[in-house]
Amino acid sequence: MMNAPPAKTIMLIDDSSTNNILYESILLDEGYDVIVCEDAKTALKILPQNVPDLIILDLMMPGMDGFQFIKKKNEIKIAAKVPVIMLTARVDTISEQKAYEMGVVEYIIKPVGIAEITEKVKKCLSIIKK
User: Fold this and answer.
1) Per-residue confidence at 130, pLDDT binned at 50, 70, 90?
2) Are 89 and 110 in contact (CB under 8 A)?
3) Domain boundaries in the chain?
């Protein structure tokens, strides 16, 4: 019998605990390991020791927004190549364009359905091979 491949790890960074609970349960149901961070500063602290396969990132957060986080994440050599899905309530083409220019692989507008989030996560993880 073949062993199942180890579960992919997803880091979820959102200042809304309601969103974190919702997205974490969706991702756990899909069989992923999930690291939940309530803010970008915390995520940056634990990132070097806990490099995920994918990061789902809120754009608008107090203290450090998603763009600032991406910039700092990319300075951490071991985490620089980790793909990011931006999950935001901000519906403007300038933010979206900036996100893609910074290397974001998907820009998803909240509210997001379960099917959309799981499909985008699968798509992003299938592109990368660890």
Assistant:
1) very low
2) yes
3) 9-127
Residues 3-31 have pLDDT tens digits of 667 789 999 999 999 999 999 999 999 99
Q: What share of the chain is helix, strand, coil (3-state, %, to 5)?
A: 40, 20, 40
Instruction: Count other C-beta atoms under 10 Å from residue 6's C-beta.
Output: 9
Question: What distance in Å separates the CA atoms of residue 99 and residue 24, rounded to the nearest whole number?
Answer: 23
Whether residue 127 is predicted with pLDDT greater than 80 in this model: the reply is no
DSSP H stretches of helix in 11-113: 17-29, 40-46, 66-73, 93-101
One of 1.20.1250.20, 3.40.30.10, 3.40.50.261, 3.40.50.2300 is the CATH number of 9-127, namely 3.40.50.2300
Beta strands in the chain (DSSP E): 9-13, 33-37, 54-58, 84-88, 106-109
The whole-angstrom separation of Cα 105 and Cα 47 is: 19
Q: Are 128 and 83 in contact (CB under 8 A)?
A: yes
pTM value is 0.93
Query: In the numeric block, which tokens belong to residue 88?
Result: 């935001």
